[in-house]
From TrEMBL:
<dbReference type="Pfam" id="PF05685">
    <property type="entry name" value="Uma2"/>
</dbReference>
<dbReference type="InterPro" id="IPR008538">
    <property type="entry name" value="Uma2"/>
</dbReference>
<keyword id="KW-0255">Endonuclease</keyword>
<keyword id="KW-0540">Nuclease</keyword>
<dbReference type="InterPro" id="IPR012296">
    <property type="entry name" value="Nuclease_put_TT1808"/>
</dbReference>
<protein>
    <submittedName>
        <fullName>Uma2 family endonuclease</fullName>
    </submittedName>
</protein>
<dbReference type="InterPro" id="IPR011335">
    <property type="entry name" value="Restrct_endonuc-II-like"/>
</dbReference>
<dbReference type="GO" id="GO:0004519">
    <property type="term" value="F:endonuclease activity"/>
</dbReference>
<feature type="domain" description="Putative restriction endonuclease">
    <location>
        <begin position="35"/>
        <end position="187"/>
    </location>
</feature>
<keyword id="KW-0378">Hydrolase</keyword>
Length: 198
């Protein structure tokens, strides 16, 4: 009986586990055959999460319409998902990213460029969106962080500001039917209910 010869097979999900860097991501992502997904990495370990439902998508599009004019007036720039480096072996991809100033054809962004990541909290990544990512962003010195949570016909927004302790503290918070209002990082004033699907 002759020996069976096997072709070497490279599987980035297995072979690069724990080794992911921005350079590896630029070379191997997106992964062929995978459905549309968000790719992030923590300590070289790839994290994937599926696209969320229509409620989150609608909230994202409405938030852009509400925030973009004031952000531009203040000299900032609001983008949909961008790759923000968190270290040699990590990056995050917030749903929206408020940059301190407009970018020019960049793919990867440094924390120093980011004014405020914005996360529409996802059931599939709730812990990461509400706890892990804010802790990472605070450690990187990113000045603000905005959570948006849509559930059962309600919306809650919480804007966090980096305190002198190096941790985030609540700057503004509101639920549907209340006024979400803040002067920083630029003036905002609206009812979170405006982010709900019609």
């Amino acid at each position: 009986m002759s020996a069976v010869e096997y072709e070497p097979y490279f599987d980035p999900m297995v072979d690069l586990d724990g080794l992911w860097t921005v350079e590896m991501a630029a070379r191997h992502l997106p992964i062929d055959g995978m459905p549309p997904t968000r790719y992030e990495a923590v300590e070289g370990r790839l994290r994937m999460s599926p696209r969320e439902g229509s409620a989150n998508s609608w909230a994202t599009s409405r938030l852009i319409r509400l925030l973009d004019p004031a952000a531009l007036s203040a000299g900032h720039a609001l983008y949909t998902a961008l790759n923000v480096r968190t270290g040699i072996k990590g990056w995050i991809e917030p749903d929206l990213v408020l940059l301190k100033s407009p970018a020019r054809n960049q793919t990867w962004f440094e924390p120093e460029q980011v004014l405020c990541p914005i996360e529409i909290i996802s059931p599939s990544s709730h812990h990461r969106d509400r706890i892990d990512k804010p802790a990472i962003c605070a450690a990187l010195g990113i000045p603000f962080y905005l959570h948006v949570q849509v559930w059962r016909g309600e919306v809650e927004l919480e804007l966090l500001r980096l305190g002198s302790s190096g941790r985030y503290i609540t700057q503004a918070r509101a639920r549907s039917g209340e006024l979400f209002e803040t002067a920083e990082p630029f003036p905002m004033s609206f009812d979170p209910a405006e982010l709900l699907e019609p």
